[in-house]
Amino acid sequence: MGAPQPVMSGPLSPAPPSGASESSSPPTSAGWTDSLALEYLEDEERFIIAFDVGNTGTSVTVAHLTWGSQPLSPSSSTLRTVLTYPFSSPSLTPNPSRTPSLVAYDRHDRARAFGAECLTPGARALALEEGWLFAKGWKEQVKPRGAAVPPTSGAAQLAQPAEGGNKLLKKLRAPLSSPRQWSTTPPTAAPLGGPPSASGDSCRPLSSARDSLRSLSSEGLLDAAGSQAEPTGTPTSASRAPDRGIDGGTGALADLGRGTTARLTKSKPTDKPSSLSSSPDPHQLYHGPRLRTIYADFLKWAVASARAWYAESTERGDETFVRCWDRARFVFAIPADWTGAEMESVRAAMEEARLLPAEYERGRLTFVKEPVAITFFAARHTKDSATWLEEGSSFAVLDAAEEGVSIIGYTVSSAAPRVKLRAYEAVTRVGAVLSAVSDLLAFRLTGTKFKVPLLLSHLLDEFRTKVLKRFAGAAQGPAEYRLRICPAGQGEKLEKAVDSGARIREGSLTLSSEDVESCFRPAVDAIVVRLSSILPRGNAKHVVLSGGFSESPYLVSRLRDAFSPSGVSLVIPDIPTHAAVSEGALAFFLSETLAPRQARHALGVQVAVDWATQWERGMHKREVFQGSGGRRLVQGKFGEIVACGTPLSRATTWRRTFNFRYRLAAQDPTFKATLWSYDPSIDDARDRWMVDVDGKPLAAYREVCEVRADLASLIGASEVHDAEGKAWVQLQVDLVVFVGEDSVEVAVEWEEKGKTVRGPASRLPQSAF
């Protein structure tokens, strides 16, 4: 049977969604609901890696975008957080989705261990023997305490990081007393873009400072190759000749091995002079690695760890990682008060790590502010986001990290088509509980042989694990908490240590519930006071909680007691927030950069129009033929099925109905139809005629594919009519366009014996739509 020539009718509206899966997500604001249903319908694969490098822990989230994936859907597996890192274990890393932000350097500035490996007995032993420096808390050095926040008016304010600067200076003590140290810099202020600085030499994180750092930056995505950073044509790192290969010229992929890049072996003598000193004396003052180098080494290791996890947890994961590496994009979460200078430091570190080439295209590296990331994480994992993400509403984000707390107020300036936030109150930082605990422990151990950084650090780890997320108040829970002063197996004497003045017995230090509350109460009081100021200014009725300390029952109880009477609700995600920032940053990036795929060309078929009822000027010049029933028809009109600009979705099908007679004498039950694409940009007349008056095809129309279907069973099930001795049946079929597994497809569909039957589909090339 040849292609039918039905009388042209107006374009049919898209059919109701057939087979569309209903979203299992809770009702939300219109803009966020649209984002949840967003489908990636592009031929090119994309691989995106998001970092949250915190003061104490780091998380990495990845997304592999392929045709038809819904990366923001709560049930989607496209967006995944790395769950295991090298040397991860419950004893070293209680939160498996986070790894400690630690790098161990030897006296030649070589990175020897990363993450949880730095906490292993083997690493500790080598650190004591060789005088290693354990770099941590370096995030605070990027924007030191008290640094001025300049206005963000453009790239002209940025300066090249000094090659000799950005050093983390630390005077190493005797190896046996301090194998793990907080890396700090000299107490000197630096101009914008110069070496970062910090005041004092503290063994606690700088985030405990009770000061306010105000952000003057706009909210949203900050492209590293945009106005917030130097042009990509002026790389900060030394120029490198681009080598061609699967790594896009970075040369980094070969370095991204599975596991750590450094071996825990004794350092061998080298003929190459050290950049610091040839003397291994651990008492000597030495400069240590540059801040940018620490970031570069750690980020490269984090990507290697993500690759190893993805290869082990995903079918053909390593093959996918390698295939997409040269086009991989990176998202970096940053504090709300960071400006162009701080972003430039990270960008330079990415180049030094060779994760990006010296001159990379716009869009490869993007920064997302941490409070925005937390907001989008909460929107994905809360049941009542419709109430606090309404347009015009306000809320506060309380990022209660273990090492410091930041608070910022937001107003939802737009809810659709995308959620847009505007900060109505600048970010404020308040003290952390662990700072008070550190002071309490140091005071308790004063005058004892146990007041050494190694034991204090372990006691803080014990407090994190046993107390921080369990303490609910002095009147609730246990009356005492016992903290081991050293890891198991680290020494028989310490495991049986006794000091009545410090309340140490059998190797454990005892804190009463009153002691614990004396640390919790001032920190939570400061949070309540700050929120009491921020919430009324924006008429905010919600507080979004995130961070490790947000899981504290004491904090949650105090906040509810303080603000519930005034109608303020707490927004607590349904899942743990260990990776809230990295996952939220990636979710926000996707919601901002991905848009519904729209048909670039119209799709349709060639049809005939009725001379009598659909006559147009100039039709008399075209060939007229006689159709069924004696009607006079003119062939060559474009019958649109999918309009140009129509959003494509798996939940929608587009169809056009064909009614025609089939004579049984034809003995060819095959239905044939040709699908055409129409580009309105090159059609001057735009009268939808596919051919000129001489029957020649016009340039705006191109043949896409032919679709066929065997209608023998439909013909056999249809009622046979007889006219003038000729038997025939009346048939009705639909030409259906839909989004398939890997492309847009077209097929013939019909009803037979009460069931819908669909013939074989033809795949459309990407250029056709």
Automatic annotation (TrEMBL):
From the UniProt entry, list the residue stretches annotated as the region Disordered: 1-31, 175-210, 223-284
Alphabetical list of SUPFAM superfamilies matching this protein: Actin-like ATPase domain
Polar residues: compositionally biased ranges: 229-239
Low complexity compositional bias, start-end: 18-31, 183-210, 272-282
* Protein name as it appears in the record: Proteophosphoglycan ppg4
* Source species: Rhodotorula diobovata
Give the classification, highest ranks. Answer: Eukaryota, Fungi, Dikarya, Basidiomycota, Pucciniomycotina
